[in-house]
Amino acid sequence: MGKKYLTLSQLNIEGQFLGFGSRGRDRIKCKIKYKHLYLKTSTQDLKIKIPKNLRCSLRNLLTGEQICVSVVSKLNRVNGKIKLIAYGVRSVGFCPLDYSSKENIAKIMVCQKSACLKHGGKSLLANLEKTLCDRGLLDKVKIEHTNCQKACRTAPNCILMLGGEEQYKKLEPEAIASLLQTHFFANNI
């Protein structure tokens, strides 16, 4: 049997640097051990793997900075997903992020790893979508499927983020919908 990854191409991607991430979701740790960088292009947000030899040189990147990332794209033959691996990063300029539009956006991160799925993760997601749809909030909320949230004992897990600052954990769909209605009503959306 051959290799797991098939190299597709090398390309340069220009966009706005959104931040770093480590294992799992995009958790930023005190130690500089970033494994991924997030890049906003004109069409989509990308997650790009950073090899160890490149990590130290990226410490001075600022959120909002325009960068050009040289990547190798690889296809996972097992699941058909494309993985982007950086081999070079250079600064192009600076354009501050527009935080005003993001303040009122809510995001719900639902764990989709095995422990959470076994303990009702699929039904939590379905109930959440139904409740949000019933209250007319589905179009105002981004539901994200995440890797392990490191709280398997309390599965199924989801995190509600309102405006990027407030975080709520271990909520039922009805409680999430109520918090969202309060949040959107308070911000006149």
From TrEMBL:
* Alphabetic keyword roster: DNA-binding
Q: Name one Pfam family in it.
A: 2Fe-2S_thioredx
Task: Tell me which CDD domains the record gives.
Answer: TRX_Fd_family
Superkingdom as given in the UniProt entry: Bacteria
Molecular function via GO? DNA binding
Q: What is this protein called?
A: DNA-binding protein
